[in-house]
Amino acid sequence: MNFEQVIGLEVHCELKTHSKMFSSSPVSFGEEPNTMVNEIDMSMPGTMPSVNKRAVEYAIRVCHALHMDIDELLCFDRKNYYYADLPKGFQITQNRRPIGKNGYLDIEVDGQKHHIAIERLHMEEDTCKQFHFADYSLLDYNRAGIPLIEIVTYPSIRNGAQAAAYLEKLRQILLYTDVSDAKMEEGSMRCDVNISIRPCGSEEFGKRTEIKNLNSISNVQKAIEYEALRQEKVLLHGDEVLQETRRYDETLKKTVAMRAKGDAVDYKYYCEPNILPIRISHQWVMQIKEDLPMLADERAQKYINEYGISTIDANILVASKDISDFFEETISYCQEYQLVCHWLLGDVQAYLNKENITINETELTPEYLGKIITFIQNETISSKQAKKVFAELMHTGKDPEKIIEEKGMKQISDPDTLSVMIHEVLDNNEQSIHDYKAGKDRAVGYLVGQIMKKTNSQANPKLTHELLIKLLKERISDE
How far apart, in whole angstroms, are the C-alpha atoms of residue 22 and residue 128? Predict the structure, then answer.
């Protein structure tokens, strides 16, 4: 029997506002525990929440990017449950009226396009972070109250590869709309998976399991692939898939049961009494759409249509917002679009991979990269010399112009100067002239090498080759 996977994803994303969702406490990562909190975060008696306008703006940005219907009446609800990670004993969220509904994201996997339907996007506050030890737990409330958006798909994903592609595209949108750093390893983007399987052709959903605490996109795909096979084996053995919550064990490379999961918990939602409904200005919602930054797909099309960059290279460029931003700024200094792309995806990316750092952590600036490429184009230095300049720049952070001066790397492009040097080399290599006359092309390569040696590799390679051939022919005709 063949089975079909039915998958829905729930993605929580922390917004990079300066303050929290309902208080003035700063949003931060990596600070000393329980230092980024105030009375509202700790639910002290008499405190009242106040909605963060910037967080609402960021949520609307993402709604627009995901083609969602936006609810212009902003309503919040209380989600009631008693757990250590909630100081209030409830969470302020959106239940009845999420800010965004009925969106979608188009993805591509192995050349096939897929339309992923998104049910809702709602706003809420994050919980505190828990640290569990053998016989006790500690709580850090720095994270409590950080603005969150939760994006929930319909069960329209059919395998792990689609899920990974969706998450990559969604993360790209979160970065390009500039609402979050979307770092799964730091917990600012978190994903839960709901997965079931059913016989191919069946319309009825199977029993689903939830997989929580996934900390990378690759682990989401691996967890889905393992869980689908596990459920298939259970059904083929005549057993029943249990409705439960599981986690993915990276060491064992398998999902592990955490707890049984019954029907939906009754959280006894009701309207948040301390935040009255807020009517959002339609003009403001439209202005946010108008001000939306250019997204990755738009940038890729611009690179292809306006700059003549290949589709493959354009998609690689926009895959990283940092690299794409660097490209955008570099071409303001140097309009050699394809060369800038070549350098970023070649030498620069190789250096980043080797050092395991981001481009923003290097000494390279868009202005400096633009200078290197300009110097190659105007033949101040050769491509070979440019690589040496680049290596020195990445090590010292010096201006390429200064490096060229200090190293005496300026390329010799004066025909008269080069001709004198070529004649000297030819005078000392009579045998190579005879070899060239006899049709041995390798003689040219040898002579070019001797000229480069004589000029400390500063001779313009193209001009050197042209002049050498010309002078060789003159010498042969004079014999």
Answer: 14
CB atoms within 10 A of CB 396: 12
Strands 73-74, 69-70: parallel, antiparallel or unpaired by DSSP? Answer: unpaired
Task: Give the integer Cα–Cα distance in Å for 76 and 277.
Answer: 7
How many other CB atoms sit within 10 Å of the CB of residue 36? 22
Residue 218 CB partners (closer than 8 Å, separation 6+): 164
CA atoms within 13 A on the CB side of 315: 7
Helix/strand/coil percent split, the chain, to 5: 40, 20, 35
Residues with Cβ within 8 Å of residue 367, at least 6 apart in sequence: 330, 333
Q: Which residues pair with 131 in a beta bridge?
A: 138
CA atoms within 13 A on the CB side of 245: 11
Q: Which whole-number Å values give the CA distances from 47 to 22, 23, 42, 43, 50, in the listed order?
A: 11, 10, 9, 7, 10
Structure tokens at 17: 């506002």
pLDDT tens digits, residue range 350-379? 999 999 999 999 999 999 999 999 999 988
Looking at this protein, which amino acid is placed at residue 265?
V
Q: Which of 12-26, 61-75, 93-107, 417-431 has the lowest mean pLDDT?
A: 417-431
User: Closest Cα to residue 429, out of 416, 415, 446?
Assistant: 446
User: Exposure string (b/e) for 40-68, b if CB count within 10 Å is 16 or more?
Assistant: bbbbeeebebeebeebbbbbbbbbbbbeb
Global pTM reads 0.85
Give the Cα separation of 105 and 113 in Å (integer): 10
Beta bridge partners of 109: 112
DSSP 412: B
CA dist list (Å): 287 to 58, 60, 66, 278, 472: 13, 10, 16, 18, 69
Pairing assessment for the beta strands 112-125 and 100-109 based on DSSP bridges: antiparallel
Which tens digit of pLDDT belongs to each residue from 435-451? 777 777 788 888 888 88
Residue 91: CA count within 13 A, CB half-sphere: 23
Closest to 9 in 3D by CA, of 229, 231, 160, 218: 160
Helix, strand, or coil here: 340?
helix
Q: Give the Å distances, CA to CA, from 445 to 16, 385, 449, 450, 461.
A: 58, 19, 6, 9, 11
- Alpha-carbon distance of 121 to 146, in angstroms, equals 16
